[in-house]
Amino acid sequence: MTKLKKKNKSTLHPLMSYVILTLLIIVISGILHVIDVQSTYYTVNSVTLELNPITEVVTSLFSLSGIKYIFANTVSNFANFTVLSNLIILLMGISIMDKSGFLQTAITLTTKKLKKKTVTFIFVLLCVLSSVFGDLSYLIFIPLGALLFYYGKRNPQIGIIASFAALSLGSGINMIFTSIDSSLLNNTTLAAQTLNAGYSISNLSFVIITTVAVLLVTYIITIVTENIIAKKLPKYEFTESELEEDIVTKDEQKGMVYACTSAFIYLILFIYSIIPGLPLSGALLDNTQTYYIDKLFSVNSFFSNGFVFIVTILFIILGLFYGIGVKTIKNHKDFCDNLGHSLDEIGNMLVMIFLASLFISIFNKTNIGNVVVSSIGNLIGNSGFKGLALIILVFVGTTISNIFIPSSTLKWSILSTSIVPLMMRSEITPEFAQIIFRFAETSTMNLTPLLAYFIVYLAFLEKYNQGKEKVRLIDSIRYQLPYAFLVGITLLTLGIVWYIINIPIGISAFPILT
Asked: Are the C-beta atoms of 236 and 155 separated by less than 8 Å?
């Protein structure tokens, strides 16, 4: 009987996991609505600095109107799910790089003389730093991570797991000031000004502590990948031809020259178009913004709106000119066939993305996340904790909140008016409050299926799965647990040590108010 139960559990398809979760959320929303579960938080009026109450209530989808909503909006929600369209476009670029042979040659040239741990460390560091480009990094580095390990004669799933861990756990600690940091900074400043109307925060207020955090997190993810994940996953079965030593021929070297030269010219033109102040430059920027990062990634920025296409064109140029150089692309038919190579077996992935979009849209519609996070904010605000106890409470509360609302800006808009003034009354700076928030949310970002790009991680795990059984949703989370635990402990410890020593976390910013 025990063996039978274990077998049934292990064969639960990941698609059914999302179906079950969706149905569960619908039922829970009905129950919470009946018992009138609600919570209130405050936002700050940017002109008067007055606090405005916002009451969040649970919307029931376990009703006739809820069923109508689901049937009426499922198709449009799926069509507007940006993960789908962006993934398909980027896969075309990655496809031609792979099919033409560019990726195999490039990976061989750059990693052949490096140790496995060194390759992993460099790749993880790139993933962590790529958060400056926003969530689209998931769509670039997860498939590339699989191919990096595949051409390195290792299980591609190691690269998928490591890349997702690095992208998610590194999303809140970039040493470079990102567009998300800018949005959070606005909320932090407004919350601080409710107690001190003249308080201002620099965009360089976090650079020192985040630089240390980036290096620590990169090292931890590398160690977990090599010492735990690589040993836990089964050996990947390669064919004899795939196991042959990769030798870069003269034609392949010529192809790399063609590819790199053409890409260099493209990048020069592109970079010139995002440099402000030069003749005919800055065409892709939104010059109405103050910070440069906002000029790049604001809603009205040509760069932000066209970033997926810009990257895809770069990938196509690399693959096309390499293929011309080595003659793997001889005519337009070869080029067109190569573009669709990675899309040949995308059917199962599309179904997974559809069910994930349904689950996320239904959860967001119920408003359960907002109610939970608002309640956590009230709990922290009414705790009466101070000093280290308050820092730990905020950290733990944020890690839990992140499971229900992965969006940094939405989460902080709810929590900031509770956390920032409370910390200021405890002689803790608003800058350090934002750092603790960022450290905490990034520690569980890899564990929530509500993160839109979690399904991309799960889909690629299944794509490279050689086992007889499907990769379960619980398996994908289980792979991420050691990363989350060790990174969380490290970042909390880093914050506590920094607070005790009270050294600068950035330019003219300290943990403790003076």
From this structure: yes
pLDDT in tens, 234-248: 889 888 777 777 788
**Long-range Cβ contacts of 304-313 (<8 Å, 24+ apart):** 307/133, 307/134, 307/136, 308/86, 308/89, 308/90, 308/136, 308/139, 309/89, 310/270, 311/90, 311/93, 311/136, 311/140, 312/89, 312/90, 312/92, 312/93, 313/93, 313/266
In a domain, 508, yes or no: no
- DSSP tag of 11: T
Q: Is 382's pLDDT higher than 90?
A: yes
* 3-class secondary-structure state, position 301: coil
For residues 420-442, give the mean pLDDT.
Answer: 97
Q: Is 511 part of any domain?
A: no
Query: Do residues 96 and 339 lie in contact, with contact meaning Cβ atoms separated by under 8 Å?
Result: yes
- The model's confidence at residue 188, banded by pLDDT at 50, 70 and 90, is very high
- Between the alpha carbon of residue 64 and those of residues 58, 417, 455, the distances in Å are 16, 36, 29
Domain range for 28? 15-501
User: Which one-letter DSSP state was computed for residue 177?
Assistant: P
Half-sphere exposure of 99 (CA within 13 A, CB side): 20
Supply φ then ψ for residue 503, to 5 degrees.
-100, 160
Tell me, yes or no, whether 507 lies in a domain: no
State which H helix or E strand residue 25 sits in. Answer: helix 14-34
How many domains are there within the chain? 1
User: What's this model's pTM, rounded to 2 decimal places?
Assistant: 0.94
Within-domain flag for 512: no
Radius of gyration, alpha carbons of the chain: 24
